[in-house]
Specification:
Layout lengths: L1 H16 L15 H10 L3 H18 L15 H13 L3 E4 L2 E4 L36 E6 L14 E3 L1 H12 L4 E7 L3 H16 L5 E7 L2 E3 L2 E2 L10 H6 L3 H9 L7 E3 L1 H18 L13 H20 L5 H18 L7 H16 L16 H16 L3 H13 L2 E6 L2 E6 L4
Parallel strand pairs: 5-6, 7-9
Antiparallel strand pairs: 1-2, 2-3, 3-4, 7-8, 10-11
Helix pairs in contact: 1-8, 2-3, 4-5, 5-6, 8-9, 9-11, 10-11, 10-12, 11-12, 13-14
Length: about 425
């Protein structure tokens, strides 16, 4: 969920950068079978559990620097519109009532399957399709469910009950997005049946097409090469990333993979992303030193590198939001800045390149500003000792070992900067 939220926040931010006005809707399914069953296990009301989960989610996405949604409708707040849509589908012979339940008639919508490219006649009742004797066809899906004892319920013309999963999304889009979605997002696992059902019920109700102009589906998250899912027990809680103050590194890890591709999450990959983030932040930091040779022509090269990186960044983002290429352009620019700073600390070319890097990072939702808080006082002597050892290694031309010390310190959140006055160290904030 965190990965998907980061991806669509990245897309939203780029549209904002281009000057578009973005109305971003994200709905909460605050009543469904899973919530009801889990609330019963905890001996609390489903609404109490849903509220707790929503609060946790809002805290977590804020830590990931995800912009809040323009509208955040909840299924329980959309009941009048949901009931109106179901009634309209029944009147149009696209749905039917059966013992207090209401089902959408899949075969009443000739274009069913156009998103997932599935043939209705080839679909079999089975995985993800409920086998229910009250249905006219095994492919039909629930729009309204008659409440069981102890379940939340709302009045309707058919029974006291609650909506099916799919109809709430159509009702939300109808009310908050005027029935037409410019870009509809979600994970690849939602293409069928969820998004297919959204299209069918929305277009059958409105009589217009398309329900959504563009569909963007992100790849699935994997853990050590295996799909991450609660059923397999291989889930990494998002709160674990947030509480370890590695949310910015996780954001970078996500954006270094194209949104359509699967992301294989590993802690080694998260460590690498954190190291990369430290390099970006180091490039933004003001240089401590003096110009040694401002006339060697390298500043013109830095200016060219900044312009090239900016052009590559936007070219990639305009090509199906190719964030890995955009991030790579940022790293190339950061590398050039870090090389130029010790020799040209006061040069305006450096400041301009740093501003370019900061602007590109902001577009992707990164704040490269560094905390001024110092590490624990007791760590300072050890860091100074390692700097002295590194200098001796460099003097004896043992550059591989010297670089190893620098890289290991960077992994621990300490960046080294070689200046004309000597090597200085600074902390890198984890966020």
């Amino acid at each position: 969920h965190g990965m998907s939220a980061i991806i669509f926040d990245m897309i939203r931010r780029y549209f904002l950068h281009l000057g578009y006005e973005v109305r971003y809707a994200q709905n909460f399914t605050d009543v469904d079978d899973k919530i009801i069953n889990r609330a019963a296990e905890l001996s609390i009301e489903p609404g109490v559990l849903a509220e707790r989960l929503i609060e946790d989610w809002n805290d977590e996405i804020a830590a990931l620097n995800i912009l809040p949604a323009t509208v955040s409708p909840r299924a329980t707040e959309e009941m009048p519109r949901i009931i109106d849509m179901i009634a309209g589908l029944i009147d149009g012979d696209h749905a039917y009532e059966s013992n207090g339940d209401v089902y959408f008639s899949v075969r009443s919508f000739p274009e069913y399957g156009k998103l997932s490219h599935r043939n209705v006649d080839a679909l079999m009742a089975g995985a993800r399709i409920d086998v229910n004797e009250e249905k006219r066809d095994p492919l039909d899906f629930a729009l309204w469910k008659r409440a069981k004892p102890g379940e939340p319920r709302w009045e309707s013309p058919w029974s006291e009950g609650r909506p099916g999963w799919h109809i709430e999304c159509s009702a939300m889009c109808s009310r908050h997005l005027e029935g037409m979605v410019d870009i509809h997002g979600g994970g690849r696992d939602l293409i069928f049946p969820h998004h297919e059902n959204e299209i069918a019920q929305s277009e059958a109700f409105s009589g217009t097409s398309p329900f959504a102009r563009y569909w963007l589906h992100n790849g699935m998250l994997q853990l050590n090469g295996e799909k991450m899912s609660k059923s397999l027990g291989n889930v990494v809680p998002l709160r674990e990333i947030v509480e370890s103050r590695r949310s910015a590194a996780f954001r970078l890890q996500v954006l270094q993979t194209h949104y359509r591709a699967p992301l294989n999450f590993t802690y080694q990959g998260l460590d690498a992303a954190e190291t990369g983030l430290a390099r970006l932040r180091a490039a933004i930091e003001p240089a401590d030193g003096i110009d040694q040779d401002p006339g060697d022509g390298s500043l013109d090269s830095l200016t060219d590198t900044a312009a090239d990186a900016e052009a590559r960044f936007h070219r990639a983002m305009r090509d199906d939001f190719d964030s890995p290429i955009a991030v790579a352009a940022m790293f190339d620019l950061a590398r050039a800045i870090n090389r130029a700073k010790p020799r040209h600390a006061e040069a305006p070319h450096v400041a301009t390149a740093q501003q370019t890097l900061g602007n590109l990072a902001t577009i992707l939702g990164f704040d490269l500003a560094r905390s001024t808080e110092k590490p624990e006082r007791e760590a300072a002597p050890l860091i100074e000792l390692l700097i002295d050892v590194r200098q001796q290694l460099r003097s004896s031309r043992q550059f591989a070992l010297a670089d190893l010390i620098r890289d290991r310190l960077l992994e621990q959140g300490i960046t080294l900067e070689d200046t004309a006055k000597g090597t200085i160290w600074k902390p890198v904030e984890r966020s």
